[in-house]
Amino acid sequence: MRLVRLIANLGYGSRREVAMMFREGRITDADGEVLYADDKREHHEIRFDGEPLDPPAGLCLMLNKPLGVTCSARDVGRLVYELLPERFSLRNPALSTVGRLDRETSGLLLFTDDGALLHRIISPKSSVAKVYEAELAEDLRGDEAALFASGTLTLESEQTPLLPAGLEPLGPRRARLTLHEGRYHQARRMFAAAGNHVIGLHRVSVGGLSLQGLGIGEWRLVELTEMQTVFSRGSAA
Ligand code: URA
After folding, report:
1. Which protein residues are within 6 Å of ligand 1, measured from CB?
2. For ligand 1, atom 2, which residue shows the shortest CA distance?
């Protein structure tokens, strides 16, 4: 791939802007030698303003999503993409969230530009465990674990019952919920079906991946091999 296209696809600028950046001498090799637009170099050999390029296509990352931020590329209010470097929104292939968290849900949110990987993670067939901690308005009744595990609970305005889900009480009004699918507002609607109301929701893990000390609003790259631990059965919580 020509270098102008390679660098433009990473979101550093339009092809015209990147061509200008070459003329300005901002693109060099690892020894600081200025590169020209028709030079041939491997991705890892290129520097932009002296820094290694962002990873090529196949990018995966995780964000500890704060409350009040929307999982959308275009919406009113603050967007999750605003917490990442601006050029990540301009990449081709585009970076997408792996499923969504509600604006008022915090915690582990994955991103990738690998469409096949994304679909594999969110497909209920993969049975990836998504673990949430929920804070509730009312005391647990005691029958929620059996109800959620039954595989017969059907949410309002839906036809298909939910897959069995796990519930572990963490206190009178706190619980850990493990889901294997991702329906609209699923956790909130499940607790509503059990006569309760979620007042706080935080995702702690997706398969074998957890936040591991990542602060609220912080993000980090996830290697493709590490991303595969999403499909490992063990709990990371
Ligand atoms: N369930 C919800 O209700 N909201 C989320 O953000 C995730 C799961």
Report:
1. 101-102, 105, 185-188, 201
2. 185
